[in-house]
């Protein structure tokens, strides 16, 4: 609808007057817009509330089957002997370790063996050699006196080695012909070197550089160990999988020998390795425990090239066999064994570390009370946080001083002022809300209700029995206090009482939260069936249903008896559209009337001018 809006002939500001009149006419429309805006804000608030309910539902759903309920901790009377992991039940166990598992491993044991010493030609005084033990070189000094014999010098060397490298790391011995022998006790490589021009190393019988080191070079040839560069070397390795004879060319390097041995690992079940730090070779079974073994054999004649080769590697006739062992333990009177030092029995894994020598280790397994207290406390805190948020919405008062704001007002106001206006306008939109009020009441009822089938005496089990209650209106001295927490139904925890309950009867406490009816209970009346559900199951069901109720309040389009906010907003939009049409008609009416008035006033002005002109002619 439109009219010709021509104003101003009379000099009267009809445009401004009409706009002022329309501002008054639009007041009801602005109120409707404000009411609609409040409904939109309410929808947003309900969505936020549903997010909280969804979070609580997820937490309850997770907690009803949380692994923390079945988390155990163990205390060993001797952690250095036996520790435990993977426990699935509480109890006390006795463990006696008779033998540890080991893998069959042959380690080279080389010694430095010198020629006949010439002690008598040493000049009295201080003499030194350089000794390298496992890559650490140090000067070793002895004082030689007149009359010192080989035995005396041997003892002085032993004392000097003990002082320089620590007692027991290097052993000095002598054979019947007084030839000195040096051997490490920790398997580290040992090398002797001359100290400057001091001739002690030669006088001790180690003038030949080839005899000064236990370490082996993996690039050295087989012939260099046997002293025979012509004849091949033959030896046999026997392991769990069988025996294999090896024939090696004297020109092959020790590294090549190792590669050939390892290529037949599947046939023997044995691997050959080189320790670059100790500079020695080892033969190790590929199988753990008693089923693993390593045996080295060569010809019957000690002078056989095979025997010389094994001797040169550090495997004397007395050091050519190694056999693995199983762990053997007695657990609660039952003998058990394992190929490694870990034994699993009745869902518990025992890690054994040393033989107990007839003294059993006591293993006590119990629920992890600290973890359970934390889990329960975390839920209560989350619950209270939600309660506080819901209650604040219910108590929040409406700011009745806030007036509707027109679209024109919104354009002309500062953004900061607009935000402040919106914040005040949103206050109290959920005051005394029926859904929230009912939700808080139902949540409180769940925490008050007992759980059937949990206690041994058949009585209901309550949160209050384990130290979880609603906040009190009574102070420490019995006085009545104003408590917002009590009014809202927040929960409090007596941690001492909760811990005691968990320590004395953990299963009962856990079942208060997690129990669920059995298939046999399905025939029970609904009320009795529900009473057997633990609190987490009840909360899960409740938070699921309340989400649906809140969602229906937001938008229930397509459902019978739709009274949702979305339906009310649609109805409001229709009313506002009708009102907009009526306002346009009203505005056009005003313009028509003022246009008519302008026309009448214009005609009156013309008549006045004619009369005045006629009178002037008289």
UniProtKB/TrEMBL annotation:
UniProt domain Flagellar hook-associated protein 2 C-terminal: residue ranges: 325-603
Main localization, broad class: secreted
A GO BP entry: cell adhesion
UniProt xrefs under Pfam families: Flagellin_IN, FliD_C, FliD_N
Signal peptide as annotated in the record: none
Biological role: Required for morphogenesis and for the elongation of the flagellar filament by facilitating polymerization of the flagellin monomers at the tip of growing filament. Forms a capping structure, which prevents flagellin subunits (transported through the central channel of the flagellum) from leaking out without polymerization at the distal end.
Residue ranges annotated for the Flagellar hook-associated protein 2 N-terminal domain, each copy included: 10-103
GO CC terms, sorted: bacterial-type flagellum filament cap; bacterial-type flagellum hook; extracellular region
Coiled-coil features, chain-numbered ranges: 562-589
Complex formation: Homopentamer.
InterPro entries: Flagellin_hook_IN_motif, FliD, FliD_C, FliD_N
Keywords assigned: Bacterial flagellum, Cell projection, Cilium, Coiled coil, Flagellum, Secreted
Transmembrane segments: none
Highest taxon, organism lineage: Bacteria
Compartment(s): Secreted; Bacterial flagellum
Family: Belongs to the FliD family.
Name of the protein described by the UniProt record: Flagellar hook-associated protein 2
């Amino acid at each position: 609808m439109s009219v010709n809006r021509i104003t101003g002939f009379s000099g009267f500001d009809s445009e401004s007057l009409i706009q002022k009149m329309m501002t008054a006419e639009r007041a009801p429309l602005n109120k409707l817009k404000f009411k609609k805006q409040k409904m939109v804000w309410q929808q947003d608030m309900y969505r936020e509330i549903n997010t909280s309910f969804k979070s609580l539902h997820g937490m309850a759903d997770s907690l009803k089957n949380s692994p923390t309920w079945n988390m155990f901790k163990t205390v060993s009377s001797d952690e250095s002997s036996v520790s435990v992991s993977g426990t699935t039940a509480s109890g006390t166990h006795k463990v006696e370790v008779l033998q540890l598992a080991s893998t069959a491993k042959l380690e080279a044991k080389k010694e430095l063996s010198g020629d006949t010493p010439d002690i008598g030609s040493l000049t009295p005084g201080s003499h030194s050699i350089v000794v390298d033990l496992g890559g650490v070189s140090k000067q070793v000094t002895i004082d030689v006196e007149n009359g010192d014999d080989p035995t005396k010098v041997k003892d002085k060397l032993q004392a000097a080695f003990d002082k320089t490298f620590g007692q027991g790391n290097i052993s000095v011995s002598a054979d019947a012909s007084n030839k000195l022998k040096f051997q490490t006790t920790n398997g580290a490589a040992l090398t002797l070197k001359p100290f400057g021009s001091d001739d002690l190393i030669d006088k001790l019988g180690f003038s030949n550089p080839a005899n000064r080191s236990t370490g082996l070079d993996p690039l050295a040839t087989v012939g260099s160990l046997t002293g025979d560069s012509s004849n091949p070397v033959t030896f046999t390795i026997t392991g769990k999988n069988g025996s294999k004879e090896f024939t090696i060319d004297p020109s092959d390097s020790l590294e090549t020998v190792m590669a050939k041995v390892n290529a037949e690992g599947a046939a023997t079940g044995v691997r050959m390795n080189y320790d670059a730090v100790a500079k020695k070779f080892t033969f190790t079974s590929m199988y753990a425990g008693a089923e693993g073994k390593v045996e080295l054999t060569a010809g019957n004649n000690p002078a056989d090239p095979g025997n010389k080769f094994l001797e040169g590697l550090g495997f004397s006739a007395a050091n050519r066999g190694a056999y693995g062992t199983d762990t053997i333990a007695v657990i609660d009177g039952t003998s058990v064994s394992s190929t490694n030092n870990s034994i699993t029995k009745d869902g518990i894994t025992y890690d054994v570390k040393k033989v107990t020598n007839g003294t059993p280790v006591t293993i006590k397994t119990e629920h992890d009370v600290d973890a359970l207290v934390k889990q329960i406390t975390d839920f209560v805190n989350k619950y209270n946080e939600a309660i506080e948020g819901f209650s604040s919405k219910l108590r929040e008062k409406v700011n009745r001083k806030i007036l509707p704001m027109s679209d024109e007002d919104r354009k002309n106001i500062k953004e900061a002022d607009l935000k402040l206006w919106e914040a005040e306008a949103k206050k109290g939109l959920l005051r005394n809300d029926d859904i929230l009020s009912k939700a808080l009441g139902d949540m409180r009822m769940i925490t008050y209700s007992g759980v059937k089938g949990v206690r041994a005496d058949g009585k209901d089990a309550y949160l209050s029995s384990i130290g979880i209650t609603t906040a009190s209106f009574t102070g420490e001295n019995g006085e009545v206090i104003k408590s917002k927490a009590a009014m809202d139904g927040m929960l409090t925890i007596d941690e001492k009482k909760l811990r005691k309950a968990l320590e004395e009867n953990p299963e009962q406490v856990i079942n208060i939260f997690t129990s669920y009816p059995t298939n046999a209970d399905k025939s029970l009346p609904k009320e009795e069936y529900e009473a057997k559900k633990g609190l987490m199951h009840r909360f899960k069901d409740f938070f699921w249903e309340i989400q649906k109720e809140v969602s229906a309040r937001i938008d229930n389009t397509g459902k019978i008896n739709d009274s949702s906010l979305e339906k009310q907003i649609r109805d409001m939009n229709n009313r506002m559209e009708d009102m907009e049409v009526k306002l346009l008609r009203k505005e056009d009416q005003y313009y028509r009337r003022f246009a008519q008035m302008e026309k009448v006033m214009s005609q009156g002005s013309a008549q006045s001018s004619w009369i005045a002109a006629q009178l002037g002619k008289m």
